[in-house]
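Hi V.,

You were right to ask for the full record rather than a summary. Here it is.
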Amino acid sequence: MEQQNTPQIMSVKDWVVTLLLTCIPLVGIILLFVWAFGNDGNKIRQNWAKGNLIVAAIVLTLYLIIALLFFGAFAATAVSHGNY
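Predicted structure:
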């Protein structure tokens, strides 16, 4: 008989600890990378970490685009008024 690979279920306590650890600056980002690409065996946490990293990359990209647009508009206004 074939054995199925069922993912290990995380308890509420595991989720609370996971979320609290990801709230710590820099430690949270490092842990997301460790959980996403490490071999800890928990597929649920691995997929959750990968999803969080993808969302963070999208938000960061949008933030940079908006910041560059505002900076460009500010620079253009300053140059056109001669206040450079």
